[in-house]
Amino acid sequence: MKSEIKKLAEKINEIAIKPVNLMEFCGTHTHEIFRYGIRSLFNSNVNLLSGPGCPVCVTHEEDIDAIIEMARRYNVGIITFGDMVNVPGSSGSLNNLRAEGYEVHVVYSPVKSIDIAEKNPNKDYVLIGIGFETTVPTLAYTVKLAKEKSLKNFYYFSLNKLTPPAMKALLDMGEVKIDGIIGPGHVSTIIGRKGWMPIFEEYRIPFVISGFEPLDILYGIYLLVKSVVEGKPGLINAYKRSVEEEGNVLAQKMMYEVFEVGDALWRGLGLLPESGLSLKEEYMEFDAKIKFPVNVEPAVDTGCRCGEVLRGVITPPECPLFKVACTPESPKGPCMVSSEGTCAAYYLYGGYEDE
């Protein structure tokens, strides 16, 4: 494999005769690129940017504050995925909340939240629904299961977001020059190549859906550089072993049986129209935002520049907190917390040294 990687990298450098800015929108791509040292294989004309492809990272500070306030005011149990517990809000994190004596559960499967609620019928529980299109079908199934079981102490706090609107927002902002997009493989397994067609047709920007092995990523970069240099944009599925043209139709059906599209607040991007998912009317009885209403103050500026990192405007070393006040042991923002965060990738794999 090493010889194949070397040959492909040489081909990329050979055809990269002008500057090419490529952005990956998937946090897994970001970490794999750093873990395998892929950036170091290219000449100075190939520049890789990291985008907002981390669901935990794009969760807005005000949503974290709302969850914490909900637990304190109504004494509900919080159920979430692992990375979320360490993301700081204005008044601490869910880990701090647990240290105060409130009930916070970390689960690896959202269906586990049903078991927790069933075993503790005298306490209300709120499942924090976080993730892009990849995780939404399982979360939708969990809410549907709660309805089938007629659970009265299970609620859902939706932080689910849709990826294409974030891509559109970044391209519309024009803060950074993006010549090509390394399309997220995981999301694409759900929405298919067809799911990216509106973005491609509007912006005519080279777009390659890529897998996650080193050769997958390099091949995707090769196709993008070739497309940019030749001036022939295309929407290419280079991950056909997992991604189909229409995507996973059954998963999409599950998603939209339970959820409907609405506006959502993104860290670093603000309020984006039709970029989130909320419970449909027939599942509104499980909506934690309605059952446990809270009001939170606007988020306090802590100096963390995670939002700019998510937009590709700066790299983590350009944030004055990086590796000084902000480390994995004491994170100041979600980009350092999440296993898919760009700051965590720079910190763990030494990517900042390349800067």
Strand order of the largest sheet: 2-1-7-8-9
Helix and strand succession? HEHEHEHEHEHEHEHHEHEHEEHHHH
User: What is the level 1 CATH name of the domain at 61-162 and 248-291?
Assistant: Alpha Beta
Total strands: the figure is 11
Describe it.
- This protein has 355 residues and is α/β, with parallel strands linked by helices.
- The chain has a domain at 61-162 and 248-291: Rossmann fold.
- 39% of the residues lie in helices and 17% in strands.
- It is built from 15 helices and 11 strands.
- The chain has helices at residues 2-15, 27-35, 61-74, 94-99, 112-119, 136-148, 163-173, 185-191, 197-203, 214-230, 249-258, 288-291, 306-310, 334-337, 342-349, and strands at residues 20-24, 46-50, 77-80, 104-106, 125-131, 154-160, 180-183, 207-209, 235-237, 259-266, 270-279.
- The strands form 3 sheets. It has a 5-stranded parallel sheet. A 4-stranded parallel sheet has the order 4-3-5-6, sandwiched between helices. Strands 10-11 form a two-stranded antiparallel sheet.
- Helix 4 links the parallel strand 3 (77-80) and strand 4 (104-106).
- Helix 1 runs parallel beside helix 10, helix 2 packs parallel to helix 15 and helix 6 (136-148) packs across helix 11 (249-258).
- The protein is globular.
- The mean pLDDT is 95.
